[in-house]
Amino acid sequence: MMVQIPDEEGEDDRYMVPALVRGLQILQWLSIEGEPRTLVEIANGIGQTRSAAYRAVYTLEKLGYLGSDSDGRKMIVKDLPRRSAGTLDFDLAEMALPILRDLRDESGWSAHLGVLSDFDVVYLARVPTHRPVASTIVVGARLPAFSTTMGRVLLAGLSQAEVTSRFQAAMAKGELTPHAVLADILKQMEADKLLGFVSQISSFEAGIASVAAPIVDASGRTVASINMSGAALHVGREQIDRLYKGQVIAAADRISAAIAQTFPSGPSANRLSQKERLAK
């Protein structure tokens, strides 16, 4: 899971070292990318300014963790242990990134990958749009699952008992506002489960539209979700249902198929794709 730089120093974060976290983010992001990247690409990839990324990259290069390509303009990780067997989050990001890039290029919108952690969705990968208006979400961000498209897709993959348990734990830790009502979340979860995808227009972030679909393993269990987001101007439900819904579901099915092939741990022969389920 991608490390996150805390927005503000809380009681549990007072010993965090933001510069160290930033360096770890760069190492993880470059490891997932798997090919040399420029400073601008690194800064965009981890959601930091060029100056902040430059200081971290300079330090990591001096310490021998990063190396440059032949012309010295792009950086890549040197001799960093890749992953331990069974680290699904890392494998997911590796498998998803090429497909997320295709989704971004096809739609023109930013594309993201996320997984569920407690009652939050955690962003594992981001492929930003080339357009000037985009979501401000960065890799490593944690957002309330019930209020975001990817998070709602992930909750829809759980039972009501599991969602209730996660909700109660988050409420006990003071992570939810009084506006979060369990009955409403459960009702929304069941509706999302029937649809097989989730779309929102300016619901979580003003001016941003988003549509998400689940990623499932070989047994049909939801293990992650992807979404695409872009400027909400001139985007309506009809356009989402006619165009963007199909694009994100097709991309999710491609990632699900890659997972089933890489981790054949369940009965995948009879698994219907999201597109096939919606057609029934």
Features:
280 residues; alpha+beta; Arc Repressor Mutant, subunit A; Beta-Lactamase; two-stranded antiparallel ribbon
Secondary structure: helix percent = 40-55%
Number of helices: 9
Distance between termini? 35 Å
CATH architectural group of the largest domain: 2-Layer Sandwich
- Number of DSSP strand runs: 8
User: Which stretches are low in confidence, meaning pLDDT under 50 for 5 or more residues running?
Assistant: 6-11, 79-87, 266-272, 275-280
What global shape is seen? globular
CATH-defined superfamily of the largest domain: GAF domain
Which CATH first-tier class of the largest domain would you pick?
A: Alpha Beta
Largest sheet: 6 strands, antiparallel
Mean pLDDT: 80
Beta fraction of the residues?
15-25%
Helix and strand pattern: HHHEEHEEEHHHEEEHH
User: What is the CATH fold-level name of the largest domain?
Assistant: Beta-Lactamase
Explain how this protein is built.
The chain is α+β, with helices and mostly antiparallel strands. The chain has two domains: about 20-75, Arc Repressor Mutant, subunit A (Orthogonal Bundle), CATH 1.10.10.10; about 90-280, 2-Layer Sandwich (Beta-Lactamase). About 45% of the residues lie in helices and about 15% in strands. The protein has nine helices and eight strands. The strands form two sheets. The protein has a six-stranded antiparallel sheet with strand order 5-4-3-8-7-6. Strands 1-2 form a two-stranded antiparallel ribbon. β3 and β4 form a beta hairpin. It starts with 17 loop residues before the first helix and ends with a helix.
